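Reviewer 2 asked us to include a model.

Predict the structure of this chain.
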Amino acid sequence: MSESKKIKTALVSVYHKDGLDAILAKLHEEGVQFLSTGGTRQFIESLGYPCQAVEDITTYPSILGGRVKTLHPKIFGGILCRRELEDDQKQVAQYEIPEIDLVIVDLYPFEDTVASGASEQDIIEKIDIGGISLIRAGAKNFNDVVIVASKHQYQPLLDILNKQGAVTTRDQRRWFAGEAFTVSSHYDSAIRDYFKK
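Predicted model (structure tokens):
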């Protein structure tokens, strides 16, 4: 089982895009291919980088008012497949699932929406489903995948890219996984507190 892994394909789907351009520039320089959705894909392409639409892989559009975009076996299979398992490799080949080595995602601003005094309907729509699922999947498969779950992890990722290129060690991927679960647990706690009130 290889300690170091090269990032070849990155799924980028973020609400906050500030600070992302330096990472995208470095990943593009390293030959990393981008996958994305909606506004993030437009942002990536506006910087002059090619980006494949998630819908082109899943063959499904964004549906239910944007509630369902990335929730599809071709996306989650690409994140969760274990590179060292022959059966996993056979299945990703059989179902034409692209392996995803880096996931950069953040979550809808639930706490900010609550604090703004928004309506319950607006608050409920800021409960992230796809993002939190991508975070958990990427973190679970840290042996093969780098998960960046918040813009607070942009700088550590950029430091690695500048120092090592698009290659990470298992310890680095494990660190990002721990940070990802910190993000998800804080987020779920905020949602729980809202419902308890």
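The mean pLDDT is 92. The chain has ten helices and seven strands. We have added this to the supplementary material.
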